Sequence to fold (408 residues):
Amino acid sequence: MADAPLHVVELARHTDTGRVRDHNEDRAYAHDELVAVADGMGGAAAGEVAAQLAIRAIRQLTGPIDTTSLRTALESANSAIRRTAASDPSKQGMGTTMTAVAVDNGLAQIVHVGDSRAYLWRDGELRQLTDDHSVVAEMVRRGTLSADEALQHPHRNVITRALGAEPDVVVDATTEDLRPGDVLLLCSDGLYTEVDDAGIAAVMRDLPGLDDAAHALVECANQAGGADNVTVVLARVGYGPLQRSARPDSSGTTQEHPTIDGAAHTDRPPAAAPAIGARVLEPAGAGRRRVSRTGLLIGAAVLVVLVMIGGAWWAISRSFTIQPGPGHTVWVDQGVKLGPIDLTSTWQDTGVPVAAVTAGQLSQQLGSVGGEGATVHTAVNMVWANGLAPIPSITAAPTPPTHAKTGG
Ligand code: CA
Fold:
């Protein structure tokens, strides 16, 4: 047995919608030597679609997995999310975090984008293995904010990188030597914004069984407020046979989300939705019989109307307004109001407190956002660019500061 390489011997995962949100946009994966957490964002059901696309990209990996293959998978997920968003206005601006760890040959191979974390639990101590790609984490690294202040900061949920946000994604990768008994702990921010590291460590110390620990951690987050979806994945390494303390997961899919309507449809391949133009052109090109002059005129009129509807739809999808939203933060709504007709939908929480914005600035039209520029961060950037809230120093660049690390 001692000759066998160190591998995963126990797996557990648990996720919950929390006590405030109405659906769960987190996705988790725990299968053999690969574990991952994705925390989706975007209006309607878009966040869970993005998270599911990210999980699917790593599920497709075979053979020994290292940071190179994981990085490639995250880059392909980035492209898949952007393709899907481009083909469906309701998915515009969606994105997701992704933290994934593969155990291979005694090493933890770690990649991440965004603020979902990987920790190492070893000898009764918890150590964070990933650096959050978030506004507050950047400020802590620069020494302009303490770790405690970061937990209360109004921008604590604003991330600086996400899959789907930009055409090219910068994936952080690192490896960590593992020892028998080590536990890898992956989680979405719904855990660590409610339960600090000492609280997480206390649960890990009290509950040696990983399934119990995963459930207890989620319960702790909910008892502390449960303001966000919360997800925990645990993997212990050693030399024995693999125990799966979570429910059987034969498909490797994220079956712990049975209550999510979108779960089934998100497993379909992306794209496939025909563009408006394609649907319009099809009858016009299908000339199996002679078409009368009147028929041609009617066809042309229908074409014009469809093009106008398509244009209006396009314009609506690129119109944004800021409004006070749940949690006393400023939300960006997508769409327009035409007199009594309300064509808006909630799109993105900026994290900016309503109190920081003067009343006259709420309901302000933020202007259009072009296709490539419409990212999960655009809403926040628009709020800052319009001078509606105090601007953290790292986001003061005149260009959209999506990648604070490289732009600052
Ligand atoms: Ca979250």
